[in-house]
Design goal:
Blueprint: E1 2-6, H1 11-20, E2 25-30, E3 40-41, E4 60-63, H2 74-94, E5 99-105, H3 110-116, H4 139-156, E6 162-168, E7 170-171, H5 179-184, E8 185-186, H6 188-200, E9 205-211, H7 223-229
Helix pairs in contact: 1-6, 2-4
Length: about 240
């Protein structure tokens, strides 16, 4: 399968390049060159750079590129997250790319998490499901909510076959010591298998899944993620 990965030089991007490069043909995009790989250096906030039909002939886009700071200022979020995300989704739709996999974030529903805390951190406590609408607290989370809604709009309009928003927790190869981060943690093995299933699983339409490992103290419900993708997280702190 031919796949575009934006933000391919980042921590998550480089991990997914390693995971997917063996079986799939990848086009890597970032503002900086991807070390050791052939890549396209481009600024996704400039829509003209995506007007050259470079998405043509690809089956899927994994859109990771963003300012990932939780407290990033509005000016940065507007350009690097909202405008870039719109440009990528629009280019995918215009070039008949059938699937967009969007790196959303737990920050898209952070207000809901805090409203349910601390009960949602208990093993049997209330969890936030995939059908819960975005409820962000800060501009970063708002940008992820925008990406989810934009993807849904293109699917509902018949311009994309499928769009899956992955509400990622906290990615690090090793479990964090901080308890708050540990609840949201996703390890490398689970991150790799989750995005592989987002690429390879058969489904249509708009979907939201959660990107966390198997800790029962997480505030998110993984049942729909498991069902849609036939995915089972294996790691736990």
């Amino acid at each position: 399968m031919r796949i575009i990965i934006t933000g391919a030089a980042g921590r998550i991007g480089s991990t997914l390049v390693e995971e997917l490069s063996g079986e799939h043909e990848l086009c890597l995009m970032d503002r900086t060159a991807v070390p050791g790989r052939t890549s396209l250096v481009t600024d996704l906030t400039v829509s003209q750079e995506l007007r050259t039909n470079i998405f043509e002939g690809y089956a899927a886009v994994i859109h990771l590129a963003a300012d990932a700071r939780n407290l990033a200022p509005w000016e940065s979020v507007l350009h690097d997250n909202i405008e870039a995300t719109w440009n990528v989704i629009e280019a995918a739709a215009r070039n008949n790319v059938r699937r967009v996999i969007f790196a959303s974030s737990n920050w898209a529903v952070k207000a809901r998490e805090r409203a349910l805390a601390p009960a949602c951190y208990a093993d049997s406590g209330p969890k936030i499901a995939s059908d819960f609408a975005p409820q962000p607290l800060y501009p970063y989370g708002l940008s992820k909510a925008f990406g989810e809604l934009a993807g849904r709009m293109f699917v509902d309009g018949g311009q994309l076959g499928s769009f899956v928003a992955v509400r990622i927790g906290y990615y690090h190869p090793d479990p964090p010591e901080d308890e708050n981060l540990r609840r949201l943690w996703i390890g490398s093995q689970d991150l790799r298998s989750l995005f592989r299933r987002c690429v390879e699983a058969e489904f249509e339409g708009f979907h939201v899944v959660y990107g966390i490992s198997a800790q029962t103290t997480a505030p998110y419900d993984l049942s729909y993620s498991r069902h849609l993708l036939s995915w089972e997280p294996r790691q736990s702190p």
